[in-house]
Write a structure and sequence with these properties.
Blueprint: H1 6-47, H2 50-63, H3 67-71, H4 73-80, E1 147-151, E2 156-159, E3 167-172, E4 178-184, H5 193-243, H6 258-306, H7 314-341, E5 350-352, H8 354-371, E6 375-378, H9 379-385, E7 393-395, H10 397-413, E8 420-429, E9 435-444, H11 477-487, E10 491-496, E11 500-509
Parallel strand pairs: 6-8
Antiparallel strand pairs: 1-2, 1-4, 3-4, 5-7, 8-9, 9-11, 10-11
């Protein structure tokens, strides 16, 4: 059995539903035609019995009511017969004269009524001198048992009682008042060939109409199923391509409905996966490149010693030791970078004095800064550091101390000798008006090109002009700092410094109600 896709399932479900509806429609149509054909035939048959209505109206006018028909059952049979029956000589039957003789006119034309002019009162709406309608030559065999007469109060006078769905023909007097009704019950079942042919014709029309509607509905349902489910199939193919590693896969987006929103979300996810994969590849390439440099230097030293080109002396051992230490530093920085990237908000957050931590980090770095002939300007730091109470943030003191050390180390490594480092701190406000502690570190040349500023916090990234391996950095210090700052709810950004170098801006949320200083 072939695999049923969602499109096929939807189409087959709609097709089954439409076929079931067609069968139900055809069945109810046949039942309705069979039930409605009887009353319709009765109406047709009764409409052709004007001659009997004329007789009954004339009889009512002659005898002054329906009592004669109630008391003489045989009179109803003679009146309702098309021929009316021959009149027997000497008959005293009051209504017997309504049966026309074999070669004579009907009794209505011979003056058997109260009037001597030989005419019966005309029916309402008929011209007085019109000839009465002539009865048919024969009486249908199944008509008489279904025929009846009721008076104006709907009481049975003669014949069959009225039945639901039967036809009625009003009998009116000369003054227009209703004298009664001629009733005819509908025939039971479809017996005549004409009725069967009519029913077959109507059912055929219903079936062909239903089939045409079914074909149109199937075509429409197939088109709608394909149109509605096409985005789902596209998403399925896209997800399969993504699973196979084709991260460039995108699905088309049509409209603004839920499926379109799902397609946009899928494309966004694919873009993020592609970006992550590109970053992973770059990360692996950068790590391999970083590890290759000291390993290549060590290999060259060792091969030179083995070939006798260079003796293994203290200088050679020092160079090898330097490369080993560089490898150890690189591996440590990689590990710290990975740990910092997965760092969440510190579990044991306590109020800390960030400016005191900055002062400690600066004190430990001053000898190296002085050796590099880099002047440090802390005028913008003392005003806030000496105020009471001192600004407090909630976080991990050890991690924040590492952030300040890495930022100072970055300025030390990538600022030319004889340069300047300016440190300032002040209170600011976040976009939501929350208080912030803002620390800015500005160093002198060289600077970082503007297009490279957003990338300097990426792992192993080095700007072309100011960050290079000659300074011994691994390119992970700023990435570690940013991960720690983000875990503390702060931000770390880079801009061009007015001193010609790099400006690092560190924002940390301040405590709203700091505890009093003891």
């Amino acid at each position: 059995m072939p695999h049923l896709t969602l499109h096929r399932k939807a189409f087959l479900a709609l097709a089954a539903l439409l076929v079931a509806l067609l069968l139900i429609f055809a069945g109810f149509s046949r039942l309705g035609l069979q039930r409605g054909l009887g009353p319709y035939v009765a109406e047709i048959e009764l409409a052709r019995m004007d001659w009997l209505a004329e007789r009954l109206q004339a009889h009512h006018t002659q005898v002054g009511g329906w009592e004669t028909l109630r008391n003489q059952p045989g009179l109803w049979g003679r009146l309702s017969h098309p021929g009316g029956g021959p009149r027997r000589p000497g008959s005293s039957d009051t209504g017997g004269g309504f049966g026309p003789p074999p070669d004579g006119p009907p009794p209505e034309q011979r003056g058997n009524g109260p009037g001597s002019n030989g005419s019966t009162p005309p029916r309402m709406g008929a011209v007085a001198d019109d000839r009465p309608p002539q009865p048919p030559e024969r009486h249908p065999n199944d008509l008489y048992p279904r025929l009846g007469l009721v008076d104006a109060q709907d009481r049975l006078v003669a014949g069959s009682a009225p039945q639901p769905g039967g036809a009625r023909l009003a009998l009116r007097g000369a003054d227009g008042h209703t004298l009664g009704h001629l009733v005819l019950a509908p025939p039971q079942g479809v017996r005549s060939e004409a009725d069967q042919a009519f029913l077959a014709q109507q059912l055929g029309f219903v079936v062909w109409t239903g089939l045409a509607g079914l074909v149109l509905a199937l075509l429409l349902s197939g088109w709608l199923a394909r149109r509605w489910l096409a985005p789902v199939e596209a998403l399925a193919h896209g997800a399969r391509d993504i699973a196979q590693g084709h991260l460039h896969t995108r699905v088309p987006v049509h409209g603004n409905d839920e499926l379109a929103h799902l397609a946009r979300t899928f494309n966004t996810m694919a873009e993020q996966l592609a970006s992550i994969e590109a970053s992973r590849r770059q990360w692996l390439g950068d790590v391999a490149h970083e590890l290759r440099t000291p390993l290549a230097a060590m290999r060259a030293e060792i091969e030179a010693v083995q070939d006798g080109v260079r003796p293994f002396d203290d200088k050679t051992a020092l160079r090898l030791h330097r490369q080993v230490m560089r490898l150890i530093q690189l591996v440590g920085d990689l590990r710290a970078s990975l740990d910092a990237a997965g760092t969440s908000a510190p579990s044991a957050q306590v109020p800390v004095h960030p400016l005191s931590l900055l002062a400690e980090a600066l004190a430990s770095m001053r000898p190296r800064l002085a050796q590099a002939r880099i002047a440090v300007d802390t005028a913008g730091l003392h005003a806030l550091a000496t105020q009471s109470p001192a600004p407090l943030v909630k976080g991990d003191a050890q991690q924040l101390h590492q952030v300040f050390l890495n930022l100072l180390e970055n300025s030390l490594r990538y600022t030319d000798a004889g340069g300047q480092l300016r440190i300032a701190a002040f209170e600011a406000q976040a976009p939501d008006s929350a208080p912030l502690l803002r620390v800015q570190l500005d160093d002198s040349a060289p600077g970082v090109p503007a297009h490279e500023l957003p990338r300097i916090f990426e792992r192993l990234y080095r700007a072309e002009t100011s960050r290079n391996r000659d300074h011994g950095g691994s390119g992970l210090g700023l990435a570690i700092c940013r991960a720690i700052v983000l875990a503390h709810g702060g931000t770390l950004t880079a801009d061009a410094s007015p001193l010609g170098g790099l400006r690092i801006t560190l924002d940390l949320p301040l405590l709203d109600n700091p505890p009093p200083t003891p």
